[in-house]
Specification:
formyl-coa transferase, domain 3; 8-stranded mixed β-sheet; Ribosomal Protein S5, domain 2; 19 helices; single chain; 5-stranded mixed β-sheet
C-alpha cells in the first residue's frame, strides 16, 4: 500500500502558484491589481521577452512600510480583508494575499517601496534570510519579477512564443486600463514604448484602447435598477464582425468571463445579428459587493451572483432596449452620463421640427414644401405610377394593427409635391425619398447626405415588430380572402390544422380542409394580406408539425413570426410612389430595431456629403 506523506512546503508553494501564475500575463495582472488597490495614479509596465525574462511594475501608490515588506511576501498575508464580513463585501481587485508569494516561488522577485511620508525607500528580495536594504525611489512601489519558472523547467516549456505571451500581457494591461480611465498607463516591451495612456474620460479611454472605429460603431448603454447599474457601449448590429474576442465585461471594476452575462448578450442580440457575427461590447456592471462572490476562481475572472436570474434579466433588458431604439441620428458619444460636445454627431433634437404639410397626405409622410418633385425616369431607376395593391400595402402598414384596412384606393388621389430645393437643416432622420433603384432600393436625402434603404428588408422588420406586438396582446387583425387560397397537403398537414385550429386563429389564420389532399386559406393576418397566403400557410404548418404549439409559443415563436413577416413584406421589383416610399421611411423611424431585418442584415445605410465629396475628389 502506498505511503501517505506530507509534501514539502516548497513544493506546496510551487503547486499553489499554478493556480495564480499560469503565464506571464497572470503575474502582470496580479501586480497591476495591487498597484491600483494602492491608489496609484500612474503605472508603468516594462516587459522583456514577453514577460518571461522581466516584468517590472512601477507605480506611485501609497507604498509599503519597511516592516511590512516581508509580510507582503508571505502567503495569505493581506491588508485588504481582516474578517469574514470583509470577504463577503470585497471592494478591491486583490484580497487573498497569494500573488506575491506565489510569484516568488516560481521566479526571482524583488520589491522596492517608499511609504508616503517616509525618508527613503526600502528594497527586499524574495530570498531566504534576505533583509530590507535602503533603495532610491521617489514614491510608490516597484515590483520586479525575473526569469519566470527558472526553477520549474517543466512548466516553462509549456509557455508559448514570445509574441504570444506579450499579446496576453498587453491584453491584461488594456483590460485594467479600461476600468480606470483616471489612471495613466504606459507599456514598454524590449525597450520599445508600445503605448502611453494619459488620464481621460471613460469614452476617450475606450476609444484609445478599442479604437475610434468601435466607439463610432457602438451605441451607449446606461441603465440602473436598485443595487444594479450598467454603463458602457454595445456594437451596432450592422457593424458587428465574426470576431469572438470583442466582449469586455467588468463587474465592480473586475474583468470577468461570466456565462450568465454572455448568455444575456446573445439573447439580446438574437433578433438583430446576421449569421455568425458576434456582439462586441464594453460594459461596466456595478452591483452591491454583498450580492456577488468574487472568490470562486483563483484568477478571479469568474464570479457568482446571488441572484443570477435577476442579473441575466437586467443585462438582457438593458442591451435589448438600447438596440431597440428607433431610427434616429447617431448617438453622440461622451463620458458616461456626460453631455454631448459640439463636435458630436447630431442628436434626435435636431430632427424635432416637423416638415411643412401640403395637400391631403398625412403630415408624417410628406416632405417640406420646398422639396423637389418626384423624379420621373424611364428604365430601372425611377418611380412609376403605383399599382393600387402597392399603395394599399403601405397604407395598411401605416395604420394601427387593430384597424381594418381600406378595400380600395384611388392612386390619382395620392398627394403630389412641388418645389425645387432640398431641406438643408431640419428633417426626419431618414429624410425624404427621391427615387427607386432597380425596384429594390429606395434613395432618400436627409440633412447629412444620401440614404440607401433596402425596401424589402425594412418592411420585413416593420411587419415583424407589429406581429410581435399583436401576438403578445392577442389582437391580431385578420383579413378574409374573397377566394380561398387552395394548396395540396399531406395527411399530416391536415391533421395538424385540425388539431391546432384555435392556435392558428390566434395567429390570424383560418385554414380548413377542402378535400382529402387539399387545404384552403380563408383568412390571414391583415398585415400580411399582400403576401402569398399558401406560402405563409405552408411555413406555419411545417413549424406546427415539427414543434407543436406549446414550443412555438415560447422558444420558436419569434422565428415563426419572422418567417411570416418575410413572406408578407413588399417584394423586390415592386414600383412605389414617392408617398409610399416616404410612408415606409416614417414607419422605420418609429419601429424598434429598424436598422436590421429579421435575419440581421442592415436595412439602410448613409453616405454623408463629406463621403460623397471624397468619392468625387471635390476640394482636392
Amino acid at each position: 500500500m502506498p505511503t501517505i506523506a506530507r509534501l514539502p512546503d516548497l513544493l506546496i508553494s510551487q503547486i499553489a502558484a499554478g493556480e495564480v501564475v499560469e503565464r506571464p500575463a497572470s503575474v502582470l495582472k496580479e501586480l497591476l491589481e495591487n498597484s491600483l488597490d494602492a491608489g496609484s495614479k500612474a503605472v508603468q509596465v516594462h516587459l522583456e521577452e514577453g514577460g518571461v525574462k522581466l516584468i517590472r511594475i512601477t507605480d506611485d501608490g501609497c507604498g509599503i512600510a519597511k516592516d511590512q515588506l516581508a509580510l507582503a511576501l508571505t502567503r495569505h498575508a493581506t491588508s485588504k480583508i481582516v474578517s469574514l464580513d470583509d470577504l463577503e463585501r470585497v471592494g478591491t481587485l486583490g484580497f487573498r494575499g497569494e500573488a506575491l508569494a506565489s510569484v516568488a516561488s516560481v521566479a526571482r522577485l524583488a520589491i522596492s517601496s517608499r511609504e508616503r511620508g517616509a525618508s527613503h525607500a526600502w528594497k527586499l528580495k524574495a530570498e531566504a534570510g534576505a533583509e530590507p536594504e535602503p533603495a532610491a525611489l521617489m514614491a510608490g512601489t516597484v515590483v520586479e519579477m525575473r526569469d519566470l519558472y527558472y526553477n520549474t523547467p517543466a512548466r516553462r516549456k509549456f509557455l508559448k512564443a514570445e509574441g504570444t505571451e506579450f499579446a496576453h500581457c498587453a491584453d491584461a494591461v488594456k483590460r485594467l486600463a479600461l476600468t480606470r480611465p483616471d489612471v495613466a498607463f504606459s507599456l514598454t516591451h524590449n525597450g520599445r514604448n508600445l503605448f502611453q495612456l494619459a488620464p481621460a474620460d471613460s469614452a476617450r479611454r475606450i476609444a484609445d484602447i478599442l479604437g475610434d472605429d468601435f466607439l463610432g460603431a457602438a451605441r451607449r448603454v446606461e441603465a440602473a435598477a436598485g443595487p444594479l447599474g450598467i454603463a458602457g457601449f454595445a456594437i451596432d448590429p450592422t457593424r458587428a464582425t465574426d470576431a469572438k474576442d470583442g466582449q469586455y465585461v467588468f463587474v465592480n471594476g473586475r474583468f470577468v468571463r461570466d456565462k450568465i452575462i454572455s448568455h444575456a448578450l446573445r439573447e439580446a442580440y438574437r433578433d438583430v445579428l446576421h449569421g455568425s457575427r458576434q456582439p462586441a461590447v464594453c460594459l461596466f456592471v456595478n452591483i452591491d459587493p454583498a450580492l456577488v462572490d468574487v472568490n470562486v476562481h483563483p484568477a478571479k475572472t469568474e464570479v457568482r451572483f446571488r441572484d443570477s436570474r435577476a442579473m441575466h434579466q437586467f443585462v438582457f433588458h438593458a442591451i435589448q432596449r438600447t438596440l431597440a431604439t428607433p431610427v434616429e441620428t447617431p448617438v453622440a458619444h461622451g463620458g458616461f452620463g456626460a453631455p454631448a460636445s459640439d463636435n458630436d454627431r447630431p442628436t434626435a433634437a435636431a430632427w424635432s421640427a416637423a416638415p411643412a404639410s401640403t395637400g391631403n397626405a398625412p403630415a408624417e409622410t410628406r416632405p417640406p414644401a420646398n422639396y423637389p418633385p418626384p423624379l420621373r425616369h424611364q428604365g430601372s431607376l425611377g418611380v412609376a405610377e403605383p399599382a393600387a395593391a402597392a399603395y394599399l400595402a403601405f397604407a395598411r402598414a401605416a395604420q394601427n394593427i387593430g384597424t381594418a384596412p381600406s378595400t380600395s384606393v384611388n392612386p390619382a388621389s395620392a398627394p403630389q409635391f412641388t418645389g425645387s430645393e432640398p431641406p438643408e437643416r431640419d428633417g426626419p432622420p431618414l429624410g425624404y425619398a427621391l427615387a427607386q433603384l432597380h425596384g429594390i432600393y429606395i434613395l432618400a436625402q436627409n440633412a447629412r447626405g444620401l440614404i440607401l434603404i433596402d425596401m424589402h428588408a425594412a418592411h420585413e422588420r416593420i411587419l415583424y415588430e407589429k406581429l410581435k406586438t399583436a401576438f403578445d396582446s392577442r389582437q391580431v387583425a385578420t383579413q378574409n380572402l374573397l377566394i380561398p387560397a387552395v394548396f395540396s397537403a399531406e395527411a399530416l398537414d391536415i391533421a395538424a390544422v385540425e388539431e391546432h385550429g384555435e392556435a392558428l386563429a390566434e395567429l390570424g389564420f383560418q385554414i380548413a380542409p377542402l378535400g382529402p389532399n387539399q387545404l384552403g386559406v380563408r383568412s390571414v393576418p391583415a398585415l400580411l394580406q399582400s403576401g402569398d397566403p399558401a406560402a405563409l400557410a405552408r411555413s406555419l404548418i411545417a413549424e406546427l408539425r415539427e414543434h407543436g404549439m406549446t414550443q412555438l409559443a415560447t422558444a420558436r415563436r419569434n422565428e415563426l413570426l419572422a418567417t411570416m413577416a418575410c413572406h408578407g413584406a413588399v417584394r423586390a421589383r415592386r414600383q412605389l410612389t414617392v408617398p409610399e416610399m416616404n410612408a415606409l421611411l416614417r414607419q422605420m423611424e418609429e419601429t424598434e430595431r429598424a436598422g436590421q431585418c429579421n435575419h440581421g442584415r442592415p436595412t439602410w445605410t448613409e453616405l454623408t456629403l463629406d463621403q460623397l465629396d471624397k468619392l468625387f475628389l471635390r476640394g482636392q
